[in-house]
């Protein structure tokens, strides 16, 4: 009797279908899905008999093993998926049916010395219905990488007014809009203004330190203002 294999099979719900599994103790396994509970039972029992392979075996019904096996399968499936941040990116279609347009304004870089020109950006249209226009837009203003997300706008509003207000990008247009003046302005520290007081800026930087109740972001910004003013004084 010690050589008699123990084989168990069971079934459980899996969404709208039924999951079944047959498993030999310290041996092989088989699993699958069926449309009905009875069909899952038939397939699970047949798989158990197949695992016995003509041997005398103890075959038992234990539905709990189906639950446990399905949980392990789902966990392995989740682990095999890329991180969520990598899955949210959407690639633009190679041949869109048209474009929407938005304005990316010019801006100073964080160093306040490098001017980044603005321009017109294009968002590919993926589908049109009588009520909506579906398109892909960059996920953030001033994005540095090809990160896209799906969106849609009211088709009647766009065709009536030529533009529609959208999150982050303010407006999208049916046709390329006239680009506003994006010529390089004077940086703030070149404009006529009182010379910054280094002593006051240093005190503000100290007051913004996290040890004194400030935040990391506040301290970094205060330190940047102080260092830039100090460098200008030294120039």
Describe how the helices and strands are arranged.
Layout: E1 6-14, E2 17-24, E3 29-34, H1 37-52, E4 58-61, H2 64-80, H3 84-87, E5 98-104, E6 107-108, E7 115-116, E8 119-128, E9 132-138, E10 148-154, H4 155-161, E11 163-166, E12 170-173, H5 198-207, H6 216-234
Parallel strand pairs: 1-4
Antiparallel strand pairs: 1-2, 2-3, 5-8, 6-7, 8-9, 9-10, 11-12
Task: Please tell me about this protein's structure.
This protein has 235 residues and is of the alpha+beta class. The protein is built from six helices and twelve strands. Strands 3-2-1-4 form a four-stranded mixed beta sheet. A four-stranded antiparallel beta sheet has the order 5-8-9-10. It has a two-stranded antiparallel ribbon with strand order 6-7. A hairpin with a 3-residue loop joins strand 8 and strand 9 (132-138). Helix 5 (198-207) runs antiparallel to helix 6. The longest helix is centred in the C-terminal third of the chain and has 19 residues, at 216-234. It is elongated and about 90 Å long. Mean pLDDT is 79; it is low at 188-194.
Concise overview:
This protein has six helices and twelve strands.
Offer a few descriptive terms.
235 residues, alpha+beta, 4-stranded mixed sheet, 4-stranded antiparallel sheet, 6 helices
Strand content: 25-35%
Question: How many helices?
Answer: 6
Structural class estimated from helices and strands: alpha+beta
Query: What's the shape?
Result: elongated
Low-confidence stretches: 188-194
User: Radius of gyration in whole Å, from Cα?
Assistant: 32 Å
Distance between the termini: 93 Å
How is the main sheet built? 4 strands, mixed
Strand order of the largest sheet: 3-2-1-4
Q: What is the succession of H and E elements?
A: EEEHEHHEEEEEEHEEHH
Q: Please provide the count of β strands.
A: 12
Report the helical percentage.
25-40%
Mean pLDDT across residues = 79
